Each structure stands twice: as structure tokens, then as C-alpha cells.
């Protein structure tokens, strides 16, 4: 409920070290009114899986719940907490295939304790109906047919995405690829770790460490220092002695990667409009002992146009974007985005690109990146930028990444369906004068 109504993040439940698990359980206690026992690691993982899963599968679960209600108004007028309990129960039975008797028992108890006896009876009735349908293999599935809009509506339910996203993808990448992309978005996300070679910690060391901790891992096929990582940031190609500006830097993943490449020589100015996120970057830079080469600036990039004291050899603009390439990791994001956001975002991306371009020294490099797979935020932004700025030209990324990530236009593009990696984009631009 905190994700849906209060904008909380599903993945914070995992960060037991920072006490977020405790925070969330504190919230349960304050709002629902009963104390939960302290969760061990296994329980926390299950809670995280259930929160992530019910968030991702919300549209599909609601379709099932609605189909089993007496009438539409029962569903539409359902109180939020009761609906949430039903989503959890439905998800546990349909997607996690947990034993039906335990799911019914637990969720009925939950509804009675958190709401009232009648709510427990309703959960009991709907979950039992669901179990019967599931056991007879007759769960209601919308039929994919009719015109484009009707097809998109059915697919949006089956794969649990907003209709506007489904329509957009069908028009950009076609029906089959759109389904593959949604399937990827619904899989468990895969996180990656970088070996800090700047501090003499190699990938072999990292692998030994992970094996000792019994953490399952996969070596990145494309980068030597990473264990499953989103590629792309090596396109800046930072070299010792260079000055770099990281324009939208917080919380700092890319700043730290670049800092480790500088071997203590050179400088990075990390700019971000968000003070809190920039503070995280400062703390991490200290922890990684690169704070002597990383300085921070809390500012709106758009206000830094043509600042003569601030010019760098290389400028990275990792722009705010829709995040449409990372929907598997950010379970809640698909429901927060609206198609109208795209225009606002692309206007901001244009403005940030214009400002960032003034911070590059003549002969320097500007890298624009997003974690989106949407052409409107990627290729189209660069095409529009090049029309406004004839002093820039594209430098193909083929010297920096393996050819399977290089587009015909010379840009970097990773795609969940093609590479089994997060979707991302980057363009490397050279400034002539
Ligand atoms: C995609 S995130 C950057 C992630 C970061 N590069 C990393 O690797 O951790 C985009 C960042 O842009 C920042 N931002 C948005 N508008 C900005 C502006 N006008 N000026 C400076 N930063 C801005 C946001 O606060 C956010 O931290």
C-alpha cells in the first residue's frame, strides 16, 4: 500500500542492513495495528518477492479478482487494504504456487485481524473460488483479438502492463518482441557488482568472495571487471589526468566507476539538483577513498550554461528518463509512468543536453545516456541535438563496447530481449570548436 499510495520503493524491503525491513514492519504495526515477529533473512526475501510480485502483476491480479467478484461495483468500491490482501493471496496461489490451504488460512487471518470478520469471510470465499478454477485449469484469460486497441488491452492484462506502454512497444518493435519485453519485465531482476580494480580488488577476488558467501553469480560476458552488470558507462573512457563533469551524478554509480579509472589523477565534478542523493554520493566517494578527486555541486544543470570556469575534457549526462529499460528491477515504475510524462521528459532531456554541451572544452567529449529503450528519449534526442549544435558530431562507440551493442547510427544500445541485460542507451559526441 505504501508503494501504491505513498510512492515507497519495493526494493527497500531488502536493505536489511539499513534497517528498512524494520522500518517497513514498523509501518505495518502503526497502520494495521499488530506487531510482527522479527523477520529472518528467508522471511524478508519472501516478503520482498511478494511485494515485488504483487506490484508487477497488479493488473493481472485485479483482472482475476474482478472476474470472481459478484459485480464490478464490489471490486471498484473495495477498500484498499482488503484489495491488497486479496492481491497477495491471489499472487501466492497463481504465481508462487504456494500450498492453497496455507495461503487461504494466512490471508483470512490477516483480513480478520487487520479489518474485520466480514472481510475475512470475503477473502475466504474469493480465494476458495480461485483455487477451484486453478485446479481445473480454467483461470479467466482475456482473448487477444479485435483491433489494435483491443489487442493491446488484452495483452496489458495478460502481461500486467499499462495499455499505453503495450501500444507504444507494438508500434516500435512489433507484437512478438513486445511480448518478449513484457515477459522480461516480469522476471526476477538480476543485480550486478563491479570489482574495484582501482583498489586492487580483481574480479577473481570478487568471485572468491561471492563463492565464500554462497551468492549465486554469473560472469559478465562483455566486461572483465563485472559480475552481471548493466554495460554502457565505459563509453566515457575516462583516462588518468582528465577533467570530467558528471552532470546528473547522484547517487553516484557512474561517478565512482569513472573515479576508479582515473587512478587518483584528474578530477570529477559531480553535479546534481537533489541534495539528499548527492549526499549519498559524497559518503560513497569517501568510503571508496576517491573523495580527493571527486567534488560535488548541488545545482540545477540548466543554470550552469556557459560557465567559463567550468569546462571539462569529458562530460557525462546520464539523463533523468522514463526508465522503460529497467522495468524488471523497478517493479512499481510501470504504474507510475503516464504517456504524457514522455513529452515533459524529452523537453527536460533537450534542455539538459543544451546545458551540458556548453561545459565541454573544444575537442572534448559529451556522452548522453539513459536507462530507456524508447527511441524518443534516445536516438530522437540526439538527432534533435545535432540539428541545434553543429559543433558536435557522433563518435561511434564501436571502440568501447562489443559490436553486438553498437547500433547502425554508432550508438550504444542494450536491450533486455536481445542481451538479457537492462535496457540502456548512450551516445558519444565530439565537440569540434
Ligand atoms: C538517472 S539519475 C542519475 C544516476 C547517476 N548517474 C548514477 O549513476 O547513479 C538522474 C539524476 O538527474 C538529476 N537531475 C534531474 N534534473 C536535474 C537538473 N536540472 N540538474 C541537475 N541534476 C538533475 C536527478 O536528481 C537524478 O539524480
Automatic annotation (TrEMBL):
The keyword Methyltransferase applies. The keyword S-adenosyl-L-methionine applies. GO terms for cellular component: cytoplasm. It comes from the Eukaryota. GO terms for biological process: regulation of DNA-templated transcription; RNA methylation; rRNA processing. One of its GO terms (molecular function) is RNA binding. Belongs to the class I-like SAM-binding methyltransferase superfamily. RsmB/NOP family. This is SAM-dependent MTase RsmB/NOP-type domain-containing protein. It comes from Erythranthe guttata (Yellow monkey flower).
Amino acid at each position: 500500500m505504501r508503494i501504491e499510495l505513498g510512492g515507497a520503493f519495493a526494493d527497500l524491503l531488502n536493505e536489511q542492513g539499513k534497517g528498512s525491513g524494520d522500518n517497513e514492519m514498523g509501518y505495518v504495526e502503526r497502520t494495521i495495528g499488530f506487531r510482527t515477529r522479527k523477520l529472518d533473512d528467508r522471511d524478508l526475501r519472501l516478503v520482498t518477492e511478494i511485494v515485488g510480485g504483487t506490484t508487477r502483476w497488479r493488473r493481472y491480479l485485479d483482472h482475476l479478482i474482478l472476474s470472481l467478484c459478484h459485480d464490478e461495483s464490489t471490486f471498484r468500491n473495495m477498500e484498499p487494504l482488503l484489495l491488497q490482501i486479496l492481491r497477495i493471496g491471489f499472487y501466492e496461489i497463481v504465481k508462487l504456487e504456494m500450498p492453497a490451504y496455507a495461503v487461504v488460512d494466512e490471508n483470512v487471518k490477516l483480513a480478520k485481524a487487520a479489518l474485520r470478520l466480514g472481510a475475512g469471510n470475503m477473502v475466504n470465499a474469493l480465494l476458495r473460488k480461485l483455487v477451484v478454477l486453478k485446479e481445473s485449469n480454467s483461470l479467466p484469460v482475456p482473448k487477444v483479438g479485435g483491433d489494435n486497441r483491443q489487442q493491446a488491452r488484452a495483452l496489458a492484462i495478460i502481461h500486467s502492463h499499462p495499455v499505453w506502454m503495450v501500444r507504444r512497444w507494438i508500434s516500435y518493435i512489433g507484437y512478438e518482441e513486445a511480448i518478449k519485453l513484457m515477459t522480461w519485465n516480469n522476471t526476477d531482476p538480476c543485480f550486478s557488482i563491479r570489482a574495484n580494480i582501482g583498489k586492487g580488488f580483481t574480479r577473481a577476488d570478487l568471485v572468491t568472495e561471492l563463492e565464500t558467501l554462497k551468492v549465486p553469480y554469473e560472469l559478465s560476458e562483455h566486461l572483465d571487471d563485472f559480475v552481471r552488470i548493466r554495460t554502457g558507462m565505459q563509453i566515457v573512457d575516462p583516462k588518468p589526468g582528465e577533467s570530467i563533469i558528471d552532470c546528473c551524478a547522484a547517487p553516484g554509480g557512474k561517478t565512482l566507476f569513472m573515479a576508479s579509472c582515473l587512478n587518483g589523477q584528474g578530477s570529477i565534478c559531480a553535479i546534481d539538483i537533489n541534495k539528499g542523493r548527492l549526499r549519498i554520493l559524497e559518503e560513497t566517494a569517501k568510503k571508496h577513498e576517491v573523495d580527493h578527486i571527486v567534488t560535488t555541486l548541488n545545482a540545477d544543470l540548466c543554470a550552469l550554461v556557459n560557465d567559463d570556469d567550468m569546462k571539462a575534457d569529458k562530460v557525462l549526462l546520464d539523463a533523468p528518463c522514463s526508465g522503460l529499460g529497467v522495468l524488471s528491477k523497478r517493479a512499481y515504475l510501470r504504474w507510475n509512468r503516464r504517456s504524457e510524462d514522455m513529452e515533459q521528459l524529452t523537453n527536460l532531456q533537450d534542455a539538459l543536453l543544451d546545458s551540458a554541451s556548453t561545459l565541454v572544452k573544444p575537442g572534448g567529449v559529451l556522452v548522453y545516456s539513459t536507462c530507456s529503450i524508447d527511441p524518443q528519449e534516445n536516438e530522437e534526442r540526439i538527432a534533435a541535438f545535432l540539428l541545434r549544435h553543429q559543433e558536435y558530431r557522433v563518435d561511434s562507440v564501436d571502440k568501447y563496447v562489443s559490436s553486438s551493442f553498437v547500433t547502425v547510427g554508432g550508438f550504444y544500445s542494450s536491450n533486455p530481449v536481445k542481451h538479457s541485460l537492462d535496457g540502456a542507451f548512450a551516445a558519444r559526441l565530439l565537440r569540434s570548436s
